[in-house]
Queue: 2 jobs
Job 1
Amino acid sequence: MDAKLAGGADRARALSLFVAVVEGESFSAAGRALDLSPSAVSRAIDRIEARLGVRLLLRSTRALSLTAEGQAYLQTARRILADLDDAEQQIADQGAPRGRLRVSAALSHGRLCVVPLLGEFAALYPHILVDIALTDTLVDVAAGQADVAIRFGPLADSTLTIRKLGETGRVIVASPAYLARHGTPRRPEDLHSHNCLNFNFRRAEPIWPFRADGRDFSLCVKGNIEANNGETLGQLAANGVGVARVGAFSVVGEIAAGRLIPILEAYNPGDVELIHAVFVGGANTPARVRVFVDFLAARLR
């Protein structure tokens, strides 16, 4: 084999090995995944570090951790490996969508709105393997942690491509049993005497917006339970624990069944939260990413 070709193949293997070590969090796990001994994996990492002249991993008896150079190398390795995979797949199938598609979606929206669509998508594109993770933790798409992320609300400036998928309104709800015990709020100010359930993530504040006589205003509300997703808050409200303000999509079934009742709708300011798909765009965007985003945009609108 030509020396340059051999060197390129060796570097590709080194990238794969390094990513396997980081994702497996140990030499042993990477060895099992690659059918190598832990010592062979350790020596390979030593060779990478020697070639680069920097330390990529900090080793201890309990764990491995990345240095700043290691984090940069990991991001580059994931991107290069993804590009290699895309190139081979496009050549093999002449551009037809196929391969693994890693999708990140929020817990409630993913379970209620995205997962029910996957059966139809799989039937349309049987050669695409959808690898979906439901989490309210933001993944780093630019670093290769996901191919497509579905995100709510304002987005930070970045070089990523953004595609609007839809939007959702907010609704304040409570169960018939709770309202029977505590009374139905007639004005927003009445909420001060109610148990108002809130979100616990940092960008959420216990401030609910309202509109009356053409004037927008907000109230600070209090309650004794917080959660990281609207589905949980809706479930708590349906169980009679308190009043919740959540995305309408997460409680549409409970409202239809009469387990939750919208309240203070006359004061609803009509605020909406935008839903976007975030991905690495450009001319080399894999076909599987393009067709999935197009599919979601058509179905979720």
Job 2
Amino acid sequence: MCAEPDHYKPLDPPLGPEPVAMVPVVQLYARDVPGLVFPASTDLLQILWCPLVHEDGRYAANPRLHWRNAALTAAGAMAGEPPCPHTADEDYLPRPCTVSPTPAVEYPNWDLPEGLSELLDQRFEDLKKEKGYDYFEVATTQQSKVGGYPGWTQPPDWPDCAGCGTRMEHLLSVTATEPGMGRWLPLNDWASGQDETATPCWMAEADPAALDAFGHDMALGDLGGMYFFVCRGCPDTPYTHRYDC
């Protein structure tokens, strides 16, 4: 539960302070994401957030990240539906959906060093002329993902660990671009990508009805995202998040 006393929305009757139920957003098992490193004795990652806007400088949902042991979590589970969030913001209520992890190769986008970007400008221009899209459209997968680079919509804002001072590692992103925008290149599309006349899958027009029924159906600002970071060097694997829109 979130006990923040000063949510930006007034609480419905009965009046007075009332905790808001946290909403489950992401649940990942180690068996489903083999490339994700879990802390010792854990095999389940859960992210929940309060679906009310928090006025903490980010004006967004307030998330919590938990590393758990799946067997112990199941043993302590309670029957019944979770409580309905009180006066929830619909933009932060995910539609129930499943994950189908698909590996993708990506490169820095906003995070590309300035000098290197200038050095490669001519290659980027040639790519645009030859393929019809430029590097910055396809370098970084913008959908919700584990690992890789944040699909920033604003200038990069990498956090440093409060404990050791090193730059934290991008753990995962939950973004508003799922599934119809941004680069998306599943492995089974690599072959078709070799065909010079084929339309890349991330540029093909998808069936609007299919897109409407797919994914978490949340609007995080305009085209923003919630980016989670961890420090692997500190023993308790501290985490933090960034939000942009």
